[in-house]
Amino acid sequence: MAEPEGEEERHTTDLRALREYVERMREQERTRIARELHDELGQLLTGIKLDFAAVLRRLHELKVPGDIVDRLQSAVGQIDIGIAMVRRISSDLRPALLDHHDLGGAIEYEARRLTAQSGIPIEVWNRVEGSIEPERATAAFRIFQEAVTNAVRHSQATAITARLTMRGRDLLMLNVRDNGVGMSEEPRRGAESLGLMGMRERARALGGDVRITSRPGHGTLVAMVLPVRSEVEES
Ligand SMILES: Nc1ncnc2c1ncn2[C@@H]1O[C@H](COP(=O)(O)OP(=O)(O)OP(=O)(O)O)[C@@H](O)[C@H]1O
Ligand SMILES: [Mg+2]
């Protein structure tokens, strides 16, 4: 419209801009805390666990008495609990974007943000309508974030696509594909790949799964399948 904005419209525009700003700040803060937990504390605990495992192996070789080995073994068990706790807390930090957008909308928003930040075009195909249970939407959103962040950080891709679809009425599918350098078998199997492991475990905890298909030089596909309900009715 050519008409200059009235006082009221200007207030509405200001308010909307302010709301978006606050939402963006909250999202950045939660993402930062979740990432810090995952990267810093998660890596630290994993490091301690690997050191302990090495010591345990050495103690076995040296035939050290059982009670010492048992104490160490129990410490390793507690570290595992700590690792699981870090993962749970960081995944429970619900993305603020999901307070105001459905899953597809949140993914589109995040893709635009990451495209602007990285310069790599991230195309989103969203074929999912209607709302997904918050816990499941959070898991799918976090898996999307990790897959795209990995593609941006590690793949040297020139294009990334994310495809959100339903298979039938019960299965949510998310594919994130990049045309980058791909990866060898090693990081996909490695126990230190916290990010890759986190995606798989997040999906598995809700009855789904994440598969990674990749070959050096041929890009990477991260494929998530997630049931949209906690239990699909028995037939
Ligand atoms: N899309 C990708 N293209 C190429 N290499 C990848 C891709 N995704 C992951 N990788 C490789 O797999 C490794 C493990 O990934 P993972 O997400 O577990 O760890 P990370 O991204 O290095 O650290 P973080 O714990 O912060 O996620 C990466 O370091 C990288 O070498
Ligand atoms: Mg990662």
> What is the CATH topology descriptor of the largest domain?
Heat Shock Protein 90
- Could you give the distance between the termini? 57 Å
CATH architecture label of the largest domain: 2-Layer Sandwich
Largest sheet, described in full? Answer: 5 strands, mixed
Oligomer: single chain
Question: What's the number of structural domains?
Answer: 2
Give the H and E element order: HHHHEHEEHHEE
CATH H-level homologous superfamily name of the largest domain: Histidine kinase-like ATPase, C-terminal domain
CATH level 1 class label of the largest domain: Alpha Beta
Q: Please state the average pLDDT score.
A: 87
Calculate Rg over CA atoms: 22 Å
Low-confidence stretches: none
Globally, the shape reads globular
Order of strands, main sheet, comes to 1-2-3-5-4
Bound molecules: adenosine-5'-triphosphate, magnesium ion
Helix content: 55-70%
Q: Briefly, what is this?
A:
The protein is α+β, with helices and mostly antiparallel strands and 235 residues long. The protein contains 7 helices and 5 strands, in the order ααααβαββααββ. It has a 5-stranded mixed β-sheet with strand order 1-2-3-5-4, with helices on one face.
Features:
235 residues, alpha+beta, 2 domains, 5 strands, globular, binds adenosine-5'-triphosphate, binds magnesium ion
General description of the model:
With 235 residues, the protein is an alpha+beta fold. It has 2 domains: 1-93; 102-227, Histidine kinase-like ATPase, C-terminal domain (Heat Shock Protein 90), CATH 3.30.565. Helices cover 59% and strands 15% of the residues. It is built from 7 helices and 5 strands. Strands 1-2-3-5-4 form a 5-stranded mixed sheet, with helices on one face. β2 and β3 (171-178) form a beta hairpin. The longest helix has 55 residues, at 7-61. The site of magnesium ion has 4 residues, from α5.
